[in-house]
């Protein structure tokens, strides 16, 4: 087990323990403040976008790996990125994570060699958007100080 910022080292060790080559395709799941809460985006490759865990992966594996970005919205602040969910947010994020699991299932079912097909399924608006219910505190209320933990 390693910190998110050491994701590359953790993956390298896991591949070693499993006896798999470092060229084994993998899918990284990552939070993304640039995406609205409830938005999933599947990418075949790209940059780290400033995410330290992805920077570590890229240092060891280049940028040619698949990633599933999970929108957490908000600001690029340490307390937002590593903080806890508010109780009111928990139900929404549970549904978001369940949808992310479905996206991983699509990737494993179709296979990494069919990444274009995976992206066409996962990035569809009907799949990639998980709306909040009325019970959850919207981001606007958090900014105004409502629902703080």
Give the topology, please:
Elements (H helix, E strand, L loop, with lengths): L6 H12 L8 E6 L7 E4 L8 H10 L4 E6 L6 H4 L5 H24 L4 H8 L2 H4 L10 H5 L6
Parallel strand pairs: 1-3
Antiparallel strand pairs: 2-3
What keywords describe this structure?
mainly alpha; three-stranded mixed sheet; 45% helix; globular; disordered C terminus
Could you characterize what this model shows?
The protein is mainly alpha-helical. 45% of the residues lie in helices and 11% in strands. The chain is built from seven helices and three strands; from the N terminus they run H-E-E-H-E-H-H-H-H-H. It has helices at 7-18, 52-61, 78-81, 87-110, 115-122, 125-128, 139-143; strands at residues 27-32, 40-43, 66-71. The model is unreliable at 136-149 (pLDDT under 50).
Record the strand order, biggest sheet.
1-3-2
Number of strands: 3
Mean pLDDT across the residues is 82
Distance between the termini: 28 Å
Low-confidence stretches: 136-149
- As a percent range, the share of strand residues is 5-15%
- Kindly name the structural category: mainly alpha
What percent of residues adopt helix (DSSP H or I)? Answer: 40-55%
Shape: globular
The major sheet is characterized as: 3 strands, mixed
